[in-house]
Each structure stands twice: as structure tokens, then as C-alpha cells.
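testing teh design pipeline on a random one, pls ignore if ur not involved
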């Protein structure tokens, strides 16, 4: 079940419920993609971040997809 399907089902995951390393990665991701896209240099920073946090590339991509689909939210009041 991917993030779009979870979104359609109305399921949400609170950021605070994730492990600290995943929270830290998503905070970095959110900061870098705030302008709507990821440049080549920003991607390098994100790659460095997930490796430094001990995440796999696959997990980082899953987190990004869930964040972009608004499956992972900061508060349970987000729509």
C-alpha cells in the first residue's frame, strides 16, 4: 500500500510517532523542498542526511513520498 492509497483511505501518520532519525530526515526534507522542488545540490544534501542518520535510500524515498502525499503530518488536525 503506497502513500497515495493511504491518503485516499484517509490514513495519517503523525510525524512525532516516527523514530527520531526519520523525523530528523523529514524535517530536513521539508526545509529543502519548501520551494517546491529539489535541486541537484539539495538532493546531495538529502543523500548525505539519510546516510548520516542510518536510513536506507529506499526508506528515505518512502518517507519523501508519504510526506509529499500528506500521509505523514505534523499534527492530527492537518487536512
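output:
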Amino acid at each position: 500500500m503506497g502513500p497515495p492509497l493511504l491518503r485516499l483511505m484517509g490514513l495519517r501518520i503523525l510525524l512525532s510517532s516516527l523514530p527520531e532519525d526519520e523525523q530528523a530526515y523529514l524535517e530536513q526534507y521539508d526545509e529543502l523542498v519548501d520551494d517546491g522542488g529539489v535541486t541537484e545540490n539539495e538532493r546531495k544534501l538529502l543523500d548525505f542526511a539519510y546516510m548520516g542518520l542510518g536510513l536506507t535510500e529506499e526508506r528515505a524515498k518512502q518517507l519523501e513520498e508519504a510526506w509529499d502525499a500528506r500521509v505523514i503530518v505534523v499534527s492530527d488536525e492537518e487536512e
